[in-house]
Structures
1.
Amino acid sequence: MTVTVTGLVRRFGAATALDGVSFALAEGEFAALLGPSGSGKSTLLRILAGLEGSEAGEVRIAGRSMAGVPARARNIGVVFQNYALFRHMTIFENVAFGLRVRPRAARPDRAETARRVRELLQLVQIPELERRYPDQVSGGQRQRVALARALAIEPHLLLLDEPFGALDALVRRDVRRWLRGLHDRLGLTTLLVTHDQEEAMELADRVAVMERGRVVQFDPPAALLAAPATPFVAGFIGHAARLEGEVRAGVLRFGSLPLPPLRAALPDGPATAFLRPGAVVAEALAEAPGGAPPAAIELLRVTAEGERRAVLTLGGVTLEARLAPGSEARAARGAPCRLHIAGAQVFGAGGGRAEARPLRAAPVL
Ligand SMILES: Nc1ncnc2c1ncn2[C@@H]1O[C@H](COP(=O)(O)OP(=O)(O)OP(=O)(O)O)[C@@H](O)[C@H]1O
């Protein structure tokens, strides 16, 4: 089901929650909304679901304007974090509720309801839990019940607001893979709000980045990393460190910071560089090469993938670096190191963007 949003504006008193949001979802797409707290993600979802109105702009679903169409007539499956299950109802009754709220003409009879509920519980892989109550099942299972309830109306569009918020990391990974599979199997169009970048990048075909009530970039995850449209996106996505520098004759230098210069095709002037953790390499040295050490490892941390990373502070900015193979044995707290940069996203004062590269072919580290 296609979704087209044009110029959506929503104000709460003096605060502008949505400031002219426009974007379109293609049929069958899985998209994520990512943005800082208060950027308008939930408000946008609630307007799409028909739970809230807007001051200006238009929402079209499958080509049809949603102006004046109430929530229950939109045929949208909704799972919001605060849409808790009914605690006094069994899992079966919770899912059946999804069918009972359908418009009268589309409401199945008792036998058909029972058949559909069991089919949905099979679909979300918890058929054995139908007689239990919500607080007798795990958090992951509760999310599956909430999804089954949302899917009961046979929606083509699924709106999810932080649906995995309450789950621990491992269960979360499991449930989200399963959800992506379900989306593909049922041919749904899905829009997911999340705080978790990794989740958005793993699940979504495209990610819409929101900043202060606007969608500032809507691209596939790889494109967000490779070509962020604005400094905000560059800083927000991928945990990049932001450093100020100066471009002269196509070369970016970081003043007195112990970082190598980079080639950057930007006009002369101040520039802001964004360095991702994977793009900086720390080569631990046996001893500082004469005088003060160029940089020193503050601490070492191990990523979820088991990779050791060096953490340093340069000019008040915390930077994370991979360790150069061969120097790993020397890497320790306080060890001096030389820094290499594989590449960086750089924005010039005039708004231009360039991908900066090492001046010399860097040693392959
Ligand atoms: N009912 C409301 N009354 C007043 N202000 C509201 C209301 N709902 C949202 N806002 C404001 O609108 C802005 C956007 O809120 P929204 O909940 O959409 O952001 P969000 O991106 O979903 O945030 P979070 O990630 O924290 O959930 C915020 O400044 C918020 O304070």
Note: The pocket of adenosine-5'-triphosphate is lined by residues 12, 15, 17, 35, 37-43 (CB under 6 Å).
2.
Amino acid sequence: MIEIDFTKTLDGGAGSFDLELKLALEAGQFTTIYGASGAGKTSTLRMISGLMTPDRGSLVVNNEVWYDSSKKINKKPQERSIGFVFQDYALFGHMTVLENLIFAKGKNDGTNSIDELLEVMELQQLEHRKPETLSGGQKQRVALARALVQKPKLLLLDEPFAALDNTIRFKLHEYLKRVQERYDLTTILISHEVGEIIKLADKVVCLEQGRINKIGSPDTVFTNQNLSGKFKFPGVVVKVEREEIISVVSVRIHTQVVKVVVQHHEAQALALGDQVIVVSKAFNPILYKLEA
Ligand SMILES: Nc1ncnc2c1ncn2[C@@H]1O[C@H](COP(=O)(O)OP(=O)(O)OP(=O)(O)O)[C@@H](O)[C@H]1O
């Protein structure tokens, strides 16, 4: 359990405001922080990691006090069991992929196996390459593997996929889900992408000017409904066609476009580019084996 209860006055563009966060996250849970630019998302992760000090409050991770202003406890970032991945990779350019991971391991025992991480993240073929020779998606896989070497209790991700195109981003979601489940990681992701949040997160915390204004499952936060469909696919509206009795909305889901029949009044509420969730209650798929 991660118990966050701290405040800090931040210098916003239009004057100062208080970031006030009281939040409990269950171990192994995947939480996303969502909110407008300047709401205090990055500051929150920096305070959890010890890179920024709150004005007052406490932070307790699995019953271990990392910060408590009244008891004057403030663990240094290197004493907190955290893996941090940023948008800009921050890999060591003069080291190969393998050397980056070995460096992260340091002299510590009890770390995750580097061989296993290379395998899970499918980096074996790239282990002797330097970061400058890798694509953005490959670099981010290395950054994710490196963040996991020290067996962190908490994985913090600050818009790690924002600079990548959709296809690479979708692949990285799969890798992230895979490691999150394999290592039972308590994860906090900052994201602006509603589709990404619906796909990955158990819980979403919406921040506005330093305060939590909504919290809950992505379904309830973004649609005000508890969606009970068997299959849920986040997508983007690419076409709305009004026909005689009904309207047809085309939704791009990853690389496919599906057509969904809706009532006219539902179609009227939609614009091209809107993010939506396609929910299917009864789904009777037919399976075809692909020949390699
Ligand atoms: N050390 C600091 N002391 C005081 N104010 C700060 C400090 N660091 C950042 N701020 C201010 O706090 C506000 C919130 O910044 P933060 O980076 O947390 O926002 P954000 O929600 O992550 O935004 P974005 O989505 O643009 O990254 C900004 O106005 C920023 O200038």
Note: The radius of gyration is 21 Å.
